[in-house]
Write a structure and sequence with these properties.
mainly alpha, 2 helices, 43% helix, 0% strand, UPF0239
Length: 87
């Protein structure tokens, strides 16, 4: 093998097109947005902001809580048909 047969020059890479550049920067912006969202979940808002949100609701008069008689019927179940009594 001689040096003439081996081509060690870097391959020719075409310049990125406008669409490829927009796509690349859009992916970077999307990754940054995802990191911000993950950080917002890991580090929630401070307690002072949460207390400010809760205080106005405490000043409202308490409404009586209605008790439910039981679990709501499921929508999948069909109502039972009443059968007539035979004599």
């Amino acid at each position: 093998m001689s040096a003439e047969q081996l081509d060690l020059s870097p391959p020719e890479v075409p310049e990125p097109t406008l669409l490829e550049s927009i796509l690349r920067y859009g992916l970077f912006l999307g990754a940054i947005f995802q990191l911000i969202c993950i950080l917002a979940i890991i580090f929630p808002t401070s307690k002072s902001q949460q207390q400010e949100e809760v205080e106005p609701s405490e000043s409202k008069p308490a409404e009586p809580v209605k008790k439910s008689k039981g679990p709501a019927p499921q929508s999948r179940q069909k109502p039972k048909k009443e059968s007539k009594k035979k004599r």
